[in-house]
Amino acid sequence: MTSKERILDAAISVFARKGRHGARMEEIASLAHINKAMIYYFYHSKDNLYLEVLKFVHFETVMSISGIIEKAIESGQGHEYVLKGFISAMISYFSENTYHTRILIEAMASGSEEMSQSIKELKSRISDKRSSLVFNEFFEKGKADKIIRHDVDIRHMSISIIGMSMIYFFSKSITDAMDIEVVDEKHFLEKRMESIIDLVLGSIIIKDNKNLNFSNISLEENPVNQ
Q1: Rounded to an integer, what is the distance from CA 130 to the centroid of its chain?
Q2: 60 CB contacts (<8 Å, ≥6 apart)?
Q3: Same domain, yes or no, for 86 and 159?
Q4: If you average pLDDT over residues 40-66, what whole number do you get?
Q5: Whether residue 201 sits in one domain with residue 119
Q6: Is 75 helix (H, G, I), strand (E, B) or coil?
Q7: From CA 166, how far away is CA 106, in angstroms rounded?
Q8: 70 and 169 housed in the same domain
Q9: First vs last Cα of the chain: how many Å apart?
Q10: Considering the domain boundaries, does residue 1 fall inside one?
Q11: Average pLDDT in the 214-225 region?
Q12: CATH number for position 96
């Protein structure tokens, strides 16, 4: 691992645990086993380092989830299968990559300028990839084949899935407000996944096609691995 990579890796840990404003360059340098001056040499300021961390985390998150969706589409097992893959990939990624999740949540919640910059760069980096195009074409075909309701907006549906998948990680205290005691977090997340899949598929799949079974959903069993 290069010095620059060690700095980025350490910065992800510190920004995730301390937040953007609570993070200190001294702690990042110590964790990276590097002189603080070297951080400024590569990144010039804490704000620039934060932007680089956000861009890295954002890209890794999107590419990981997109890869799972693409594999699910390539499997040829249908629209229900792909949606299940999308939802399970979202919840699994956010629960397994807690540092990335914390960084993204803070950036989204604060409406930071860096988040807008990160999104712009992300779009430019994946402009030559067909993930979104393939996803949209796949679901337009679902409408044409009368599997998915014709009035479903794929973009708004995706936003809803992302929101439902992330809400628990935004504020785990939401379970207290709903009088839900989380004894086993893995089991709780499996129930969340089942609930989201049931809600999404139940609302967009045309009635004649609702012969679906959402049982035995596991965070360890994304559709692409079955």
Answers
A1: 18
A2: 100
A3: yes
A4: 93
A5: yes
A6: coil
A7: 12
A8: yes
A9: 34
A10: yes
A11: 50
A12: 1.10.357.10
pLDDT, tens only, 117-129: 998 888 888 765 5
| pLDDT per residue as tens digits for the range 65-99 | 888 888 888 888 888 888 898 899 899 999 999 99
Task: Give the whole-angstrom CA distance, residue 113 versus residue 6.
Answer: 25
Overall number of domains in the chain: 2
Q: What burial class does residue 48 get, using C-beta atoms within 10 Å of its C-beta: 0-12 exposed, 13-18 middle, 19+ buried?
A: middle
Burial readout 175-184 (b: 16 or more C-beta within 10 A, e: otherwise)? eeeeeeeeee
Q: Which residues contact 106 (CB under 8 A, 6 or more apart)?
A: 19, 20
Q: Output the domain CATH number for residue 25.
A: 1.10.10.60
Highest mean pLDDT among 2-16, 111-125, 132-146: 2-16
> Could you tell me the CA-to-CA distances from 92 to 44, 213, 218 in Å, in that order?
35, 20, 9
Query: According to the model, what pLDDT value does residue 68 have?
Result: 85
| pLDDT on residue 125 | 80
* Boundaries of domain holding 83: 61-214
Tokens, residue 35: 């002189």
Over range 121-150, report the average pLDDT.
81
Q: What does the block give as tokens for 191? A: 């129930």
pTM over 0.70: yes
